[in-house]
Structure formats: structure tokens, C-alpha cells
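sanity check this:
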Amino acid sequence: MQETWAAVDRYFGELLAPEDEALKECVEANRKAGLPSIDVPGLLGKFLDLMVRISGARTVLEIGTLGGYSTIWLARALPEGGQVVTLEIDPNHAEIARQNLERAGVLDRVEITLGPALETLSALYEGAVEPFDLIFIDADKKSLPEYVDWSLKLSHPGTVIIVDNVVRDGKVLDPDSADPDIQGVRRMTEMMASNPRLSATAFPTVGARGYDGFAVAVVLR
């Protein structure tokens, strides 16, 4: 089945989310720099693009930059004058991302903020930054409940929140897992289900990278 999943990924990806030279160079630069191979797949990149356009987002918050692959998709979808604020803890990752974003021609609409995300999120809130229209969370999973909590503080009614890697090869089903990432996903999902400010769903996926998925929520009030 894994071969079939990968072939289906290629089929839809080549037709609906083809990578141009800048995206291909981003992936190659990340590989050469030794970054973890955890960039979003092209189809999810295109999904992020579509969500920015469908929601009419002008301001995007990304938690977890890595090498900037998903950042490129988000930034390209913005209308004129739009901005992505992306948070990254690793200085080396941030520098590689900056180079990739510059090569893709979108650095002028991206602000890379360096530091632990929980600290930078707090600083954004204390700095009275305007609420974001769309928030993409793709960082350490153990902190997902805190990331979603801060996202709510930095949102307005209608803000879209997208969280990647929530299925974890099906391990999310195990309530007794000792993996802090699994527990983080479970606590976040329970939080989304019970919070009256959110309406959320999740999409389990299979593909070239196996069995995973993402959650999507909208802020109601």
C-alpha cells in the first residue's frame, strides 16, 4: 500500500501542486544543510495556499519555520501588502529559510522571528500585535495545547488555525503513550473539542510519508 500511496501523491501533486524551481531549490538546500526531512508535502503546501486565498487572509502566523518551504507557499498566496510572521527556534534553520525565501522572491513579505515559540508568542501578545487571519502550527507536538492557546489569544472571529502531523501513524489512539508528542496531540484535540470558541475537524491522510494528518479549526468568537 505504501507504494500506492506514494504513486497517488505523485499523481495529484504533479497535476495540482507542481513545484517550480524555487520550491525545488528550497527542498534541495534543506537537504544539503542536513535539515530534518519534515517539510510539508507539496499537496499540503498547496492546501495552505488555498486556505490563505479562500479565507482572504492578509496576516499569517507560522509556528515552526524549518527551511521555509511551507512559508513560501503561504507568502505567495498573500494579497499585496500581506505578511507572514514565522517563528523558528534554531538560528541555522532560520538562516537557511531566509536564503530560501530570498531566492523565492518573498522575503519582503516574511518576518522571521528567532527564539522559543512560547516566548515569542508571549512577546507578540504583550506587544499588542494585530490578530492574525490564519495560523499554521508545525512545531514540536508536545507543546500543541500551549500553541493553540496562544493562537486563540492572537486571533479574531474567523481566524483559521491549521495544525500539522496530528495522526502520528495512528499512535494518537493510545491514551497511555509515553511519547510527549502523542500526549500533546491528544490534549490539543480534546482542547479543540471542548473550547466553545473553536469549531474544528481533522483529516487523516496517507501518502508518500505514511499515515498522518492535520487538524483545521475556525475561531467562532
User: Anything to note?
Assistant: The chain has a mean pLDDT of 97. The first helix runs from residue 2 to 16. Helices lie at 2-16, 21-32, 42-55, 69-77, 91-104, 117-126, 144-153, 180-194. Residues 41 and 209 are 8 Å apart (CA to CA).
